[in-house]
Amino acid sequence: MEGIHGPHILVVEDEEVIACLLADVLGSGGYRVTTCPTVADALATVRAHDDLALCISDFLLPDRTGLDLARELRSLRPELRIVLASAFLESDVEEQVAREPAIASILRKPLDVFELKARVDRLLSLAPGEAAAAVPGVVPGDPDDRGESRPAREAAC
Predict the structure, then answer these.
(1) 100: domain CATH number?
(2) pLDDT tens, 115-150?
(3) How large is the C-alpha radius of gyration of the chain?
(4) 66 backbone dihedrals φ, ψ, rounded to 5°
């Protein structure tokens, strides 16, 4: 659902500073942002919000991986586009991620927030089937596995 605040984006990131930075950048770009620190929280949020347009997830999270999340989201909400952010991946995992149809794009950490914002803008301007083909630079990576469990919340960093 798009309203005054634009499309709704879910950011799944256990590093609060990074989650807040992403929420600030995307929020200032007209998006409504909800953040979650774990896969479990993200799945609960997706079940509670039918207006999500995009999910941006860290790869390594405290309870599971962003790839696990992508696979579950594909069965729950096949139309939901997913962007994975990662600093590094083992080559066999990188191949799995590259073959996962639920993942529209992969970004390397450290993130260039302006590149992320531009990629989000492009992804959300396309029909669901066009997303992966139209966004260049699909490069797998991996992230940080630290942080405390915090419930999903509307971003207010």
Answers:
(1) 3.40.50.2300
(2) 999 999 999 985 444 433 333 333 333 233 223 334
(3) 14
(4) -65, -30
